[in-house]
Fold this protein.
Amino acid sequence: LLLLADLTVTASLSGWSALTYITSGAENVGFIKLMREHIALTTIGVLLIMGLINYLGPKHSGSFAAALALPTAFVVILLIAISAPHLTTHFLEPRHESLSTVWVQFVGVILALSGAESIANLTGVMKLDPGSTMEHPSVARESTKAIVPVAIEVVLGTALLGWAMLSLPSVLGKTLHLTDKGAIAAVLGQRSEDMLRFIGEQFATATFSPAVGQIFGWIVGIVFCLLLLSAANTAIVAMIGLLYMMSRDREMPRQFRRLNRHGVPLWPLFIATGLPVVVLLFAASFTALAGLYAIGVVGAITVNVGSCAFNRTKGFTWYDHVLFGITFVILAFVELTLAHTKLDALQFVLAILIGGLALRAYTLKRQGLTTLTVTREVAKMVTPDLLATMRPRLQEGQKIMVAARGITPVLSFAIDEAQLRKATLFVLYVKEVAVYYTAAGTPLGRAKWQDDPEANAIMCSMLKLGRERGVNVVPLYAVSQDAAATIVDLAATMGADFVIIGASQRPAMAKLLRGSVATSVAQELPDTIQLLIFG
């Protein structure tokens, strides 16, 4: 739940920052000026568009974020290189005499931990180390490769860019003709929300010319705008996956597992889009929004580290426990300091915790009460002799596999072909689950087509038709994030001679975001298996 609070503010904060980076410097343009004046409402609009896109279960958001990694790293290196000749300690102030003030200042920079936390949350979906199994998973090698670059970036990048920000007064006299401390402080406060772009503009202007400074500023703004929009979308997708997996673990209501036709959980999608919108409606400013962030991410890390410190069953060494324990104590004091100094953040995280724990209590109370409603036609099919008809009667000869996405003409064509060729007909129904965390260490469990209303209707109809026409029908059911890969895998496993699938019925937007199943199957299917696309 603390992670949910963290992701909620991440989506809100990233969306707000993205719009600030792209609109800065064009405030005099009519519609951009309107966007800046109502930036919270504009951010809400952007998040709602992301929610609509995620309704289709896009698969390319991760690759988009990966594609942005290289230009972002290049821009950060350029920022450091351009500012390096101007770095100075002239404007640094001595440490405050009060240790309590120093501690509060240290707590204020704890946001840098968010990069390491995002990697920690992904350890469940990383490739296992050689020799480890799902029963005894280990991702030490993969997580190290992911965390080390982030740690270097957090430590060196934040330190150098922070130093560059503190050195800005040395060039503002040349670029903006500002020498008064009050005027410099006012400008820095005005551009605090897009500071990296401001750093690029001013140091490029001081090094080259005003034109180069403006161009470089726009490059920085565009790159970081896209990166922050990707971060907002990733936070929404992560919230959807988090709520879905909590429901799978029976920590949230079973309604959270209900999927739309694109495999996206409906209630988690609504909550993941709605929570950031609610936060933005009540956020008075960017500073207030940023104040909500730290308490969630620090709380989530504290719980994770504390669990490792006190867990005696995972095989940690004594020095691991000592390191975890010391880190846990420090972060616990940081969390208490945040709760003491930021009352609005405390109220926000308490609201998330109370709401989440109330839902959990309701879920635990309702466990064990299951109501199943079926139509009379389906009920008539479920007869005592149905089990006998469902037993596979595999015979030597051809095998045909048809991938079904509903009761469509392709099923009739497939059973005609199977009857004509005296072949065994495998009826495959793949339930797509477009959820972020489903590749984690916890298995999806054994899926049964009898528990899926749509698959149940298809299988019962095909079993009845097969019995009437003397065709051996074998139902196959799978839950997967990648329908095409599952179809190819099962076709090879069952030794199918033909695979029949219907022509893609996805809308153009869905094809753009998720691709065509027929195209993917055609590209991946072995040459020994014939593919027939019907329709």
User: Anything to note?
Assistant: The domain at 376-534 is CATH 3.40.50.620 (Rossmann fold). Residues 149 and 179 are 39 Å apart (CA to CA).
